[in-house]
Structure formats: C-alpha cells, structure tokens
Amino acid sequence: MEKIDLDKIRVDITNLDEQLLSLLAQRRALSIQVVKSKVQDQKPVRDSYRETLLLQNLSNKGKKLGLKSDYIHSVYRTIIEDSVELQQDYLMQLNNPNLKSADYKVAYLGSKGSYSHSAVEKYLTGLNGGLIDVGCKSFDDIFAAVEDKDADVGVLPIENTSSGSINEVYDLLQTTRLKIIDELYIPVKHNLLVACESDLSKITTIYGHHQPVAQCSDFLNELNDVEIVVTDSTSTALSEVKKINDPSVAVLGSAEAGKHYGLQSIRADVANQKDNQTRFIVVAREPVTVPMTCAAKTSLILSVGQRPGALVDALMIFKQFNISMCKIESRPIKGRPWEEMFYIDVTENLQSENMQSAIRELKPSVSDYTELGCYVNRSSHTEES
Ligand SMILES: C=C(O[C@@H]1C=C(C(=O)O)C=C[C@H]1O)C(=O)O
C-alpha cells in the first residue's frame, strides 16, 4: 500500500482552511451590504425566520455530506451571531459617530490577562487604532477615571452565571453620572495554573481575585488545608504566582492568561457552573442612542418608598405598556436604612413610544428615578420588532 504522506495532507488542510477564511470574510462583507439595505428599508437587524430556514437547509444539506446536525448548528450559530453583531456595530457607529475612535482610552480592572481585559478586547474588535490602556486597581478607580476624563470608557463586570450580581458595581451605579453604553457577555473558563512543575496534591496556597474565588467555591471547598490569597485583580494574582515560582502555589485564571504569564494549567474548568459567563457593562460620560432596528435594553434605577404594593404598582406600568423586564436587582440606599434601590433592565428602546409613555406614568409614582442608559441588547437569540 502506498504510504500516506502526512505533510502533504496537512498542506491540503491548510489550503482548505485558507479558503474557509476567505469565504467567511466574504460572508461578513455581504452582511454589511445586508445592513445597508436594512437601513434603507428600516428593517430589523435580526430576522429569526430567515435564521431558522437557513439552519434547516444547511442541516439537511450537511447531512447528505456526512456532517452532523449539531455540528452544523453550532458552527452556523457562531457565524450568524457574528453577522448580527457586525450589523449592530455598524448601526451604532452610524447613529453615534463619536463612539469609538483611534487611541481610545479604556479603564478596566487589572491589566493583560485579567478577564476584564478579554472583555475590553472584545469591545474594541474591529477598531482601527490603538487602545490606551488605563489599568485600574478597583471598580471605584474605573468610575473615577472616566468621570475625570482620564479614560473615554470604563469596562466593568456586573453579573456572573455562577456567583450572581457584583454588588460593588451596582452600588457605584447609584451615585455616578456615567451612562451605560454597551454590554458584553464573556465566557469565563477558570483553570488552576502553576509557575513550575507541580500537581494538585502539592498545592497549599491558591491566589485569585474574589470573583473567581466565589465562582470556583465548590472546587476550592473540596481541597483540604489550602490557603486562599485574595488579590485586587486576576492579573495581580497571576504575576504574584509567576514571581513566587513555587510548586505549592497556584492561581485561578484563564488558559490564555496562563500563556501570557508563562504558567501551566494543572486543572481545567474549575468553576461551579460549566457555562460560566460574565456580563460586562461599558460606561461613558455621554449616553448613546440605539436605532429602532436594533434590539435594545434600557437600564433604570428606581426607589418606591415603603408604601405596601408600591413596587408592584411601578412594575405593572411596564406590563401595561407591554414592556418586558429582563432583570431586577435591589440594593440598600446609603444613608436611608431599610430603603431599597431597584435596578431594572427592560428589553425596550428608551426612545420607543411605549417606553416614553411608561416613563411618563412611572415618574410621578416613584421617589427616585434615574436612567442609566439605553444600549444594544447583546444577549443572543433576541427577537427584534
Ligand atoms: C444577514 C442577515 O442578518 C441576520 C443574520 C443572518 C445571517 O448571518 O445569515 C440571518 C438573519 C439575520 O438575523 C439577513 O437578514 O439576511
């Protein structure tokens, strides 16, 4: 039998991959044409009917080529989400010309290797020009950097699928004049990383920011006699452990961060939930406006006083105007014991007639009312009208 030449096959695979890349780039260029036509006709970015048809057809055709339906779905979901995001970004830039520019200054927690840095990279995808990195040591510093004009925007985590809401950020939103201008969903995969040859049985100290520590609590609780050292950011934890260079010291961080700091993973996926995701918000001094053809979210802060049923009455106003709420969170109000501030996210554009009517009714019935901002709804599978 003739010997199969691995190198030659790999050349063929590389050539095919390059063709795939070129086809993906061509598909993206078509998505830009699509959104331009949607601007002319005022059509929504997302068309769920078209997506379902597309997936069904591709799945049927794929089967004939021996490709599993699950595989086709996951590949095309990624491609379609990218196309939707590209179109949303195009519309946002058209509507808000000063949104992103070269040499954009971004404040976030930590430095390269932190989870916030991955969110910043995602936020700046497609931006031509350099990011000016304003690494901060606390969430407070991030708000201050943007308020004092040391940064154009701040990127902050606000909730996580394992550890829930990040209260510190909610509390800072209560007093800031900054507006939320975008949101990002970042998959967070925690690994246990070490600086030199080691294994789990040798570990006596684990460094980590308190959020990853909370998100990996099940794994950490199973370990005996391990000291947890909490740092102000993941990047601080990573650089400390690299410096200490000891087989008994490990750190919680992503595999990519490990590569960046020259650390090896001794255990992957140590978060309590397999689908561990963090939602980040982007804050700026000026609000943005979202075109009606993009799925939008509006974030509000309300307090309703202590009258029985006051919160229910306020929420009924959203129902009355057919506005869906996707999040409600309550936090104590500084200096007003036992009173609560309610953070409410609705899947509605601030400028829509429904939303404006609801706000007109809502304002006189609540004690505090603040608009935190209206921005593109980035959670996938959102319907648009
Ligand atoms: C490209 C379009 O926009 C969106 C993206 C789609 C895609 O990438 O195939 C399909 C439907 C829309 O949700 C379109 O409407 O055709």
Give me a quick take on this structure.
The protein has twelve helices and 15 strands. It is of the alpha/beta class. It folds into four domains: 90 residues, Chorismate mutase (Chorismate Mutase Domain, subunit A); 93 residues, 3-Layer(aba) Sandwich (D-Maltodextrin-Binding Protein, domain 2); 77 residues, D-Maltodextrin-Binding Protein, domain 2 (3-Layer(aba) Sandwich); 81 residues, Alpha-Beta Plaits, CATH 3.30.70.260.
Keywords:
385 residues; alpha/beta; Chorismate Mutase Domain, subunit A; D-Maltodextrin-Binding Protein, domain 2; 4 domains; five-stranded mixed sheet; 15 strands; binds the ligand C=C(O[C@@H]1C=C(C(=O)O)C=C[C@H]1O)C(=O)O
Describe this structure in words.
There is one protein chain. This protein is of the alpha/beta class and about 375 residues long. It folds into four domains: about 5-95, Chorismate mutase (Chorismate Mutase Domain, subunit A, Up-down Bundle); about 105-190 and about 275-285, Periplasmic binding protein-like II (D-Maltodextrin-Binding Protein, domain 2, 3-Layer(aba) Sandwich); about 190-265, Periplasmic binding protein-like II (D-Maltodextrin-Binding Protein, domain 2), CATH 3.40.190.10; about 295-375, Alpha-Beta Plaits (2-Layer Sandwich). It is about 40% helix and about 25% strand. It has twelve helices and 15 strands. The protein has helices at about 5-40, 50-65, 70-95, 115-125, 140-145, 165-175, 210-215, 215-220, 235-245, 255-260, 310-320, 355-360; strands at about 105-110, 130-135, 155-160, 165, 180-185, 190-195, 205-210, 225-230, 250-255, 265, 275-285, 295-305, 325-335, 335-345, 370-375. The strands form three sheets. Strands 1, 2, 3, 4, 5 and 11 form a six-stranded mixed β-sheet that branches. A five-stranded mixed β-sheet has the order 8-7-9-6-10. α4 (about 115-125) links the parallel β1 (about 105-110) and β2. The longest helix has about 35 residues, at about 5-40. It is globular and about 85 Å long. The chain starts with 5 loop residues before the first helix and ends in a 9-residue tail after the last strand. The model has no long low-confidence stretch (mean pLDDT about 90). It binds the ligand C=C(O[C@@H]1C=C(C(=O)O)C=C[C@H]1O)C(=O)O. The site of the ligand C=C(O[C@@H]1C=C(C(=O)O)C=C[C@H]1O)C(=O)O has 10 residues, from α1, α2 and α3.
